[in-house]
Design brief:
single chain, alpha/beta, two-stranded antiparallel sheet
C-alpha cells in the first residue's frame, strides 16, 4: 500500500482488513510504505495484519524516529512487526519519458510483481497508471479484482525509464 501517504486515507484500516482476506489469492506479501506522520493507535494496530512495514523517511521527517523511540513506539514496532526504515535524500521520478522501450523497461522493472496502487477510485496496476488515473479496477467485484491481479499490463512502460531518474528532496518551508 503506497501512493502519497496511505495512512491518511480515512478507510485505511478497512482497506487493510479487506486485503488481508485475500493473502495467497491476490498477493504473497502485503506491505505498507509510510512516512510515519500518522501513526495513530488504530493505524499502528492495523499494521499487525501486514507482512511488512516500511518507514520512508526524508530529510525533513527524520526526527520521527527520535519521537518513536521516546514514546516506545519504535520498541513496539521492533517487537511486533517486520519493519524497515528507508532514509533518502532523493526520490525517484517515474513516468518522465525519454529514450526507452516498453519491453526493456518491463524487463528491468523492480516492482512489476509487487507494484499495485490503491486509492478510493480503485486499484491500479502500477505507479504510472495510478498517476494518470488510467486502467483502474473497480473494487466492488471480487472476481474482477482477482483477474486484475493476474494480468501483467505494461502498456505505459515506455514512459517509465528503468532505472528512473532521481531528484533531491527539498523542504518547502511548510
Amino acid at each position: 500500500l503506497l501512493g502519497g501517504e496511505p495512512t491518511i486515507n480515512p478507510q485505511f484500516v478497512e482497506i487493510v482488513d479487506y486485503l488481508s482476506k485475500f493473502k495467497g489469492q491476490l498477493y504473497t506479501i502485503l506491505r505498507v510504505i509510510t512516512n510515519g506522520t500518522n501513526l495513530k493507535p488504530h493505524i499502528v494496530e492495523s499494521f499487525r495484519k501486514l507482512d511488512y512495514v516500511v518507514l520512508s523517511l526524508y530529510p525533513d521527517t527524520k526526527s520521527i524516529i527520535d519521537k518513536m523511540k521516546k514514546s516506545g513506539l519504535y520498541e513496539y514496532f521492533d517487537n511486533n512487526l517486520t519493519f524497515n526504515i528507508w532514509y533518502s535524500k532523493e526520490f525517484f521520478v517515474y513516468g518522465t519519458g525519454g529514450e526507452s522501450d516498453r519491453l526493456g523497461n518491463w524487463e528491468k522493472c523492480w516492482a512489476k510483481k509487487r507494484c499495485r496502487n490503491l486509492d478510493s477510485s480503485g486499484l491500479y496496476m502500477c505507479y504510472i497508471l495510478y498517476g494518470k488515473k488510467m486502467n483502474v479496477c473497480n473494487l466492488t467485484n471480487q472476481q474482477e479484482v482477482v483477474d486484475y491481479f493476474k494480468t501483467e499490463s505494461f502498456s505505459l512502460c515506455e514512459f517509465c525509464t528503468q532505472p528512473p531518474p532521481t531528484e533531491p528532496w527539498e523542504n518547502n518551508g511548510n
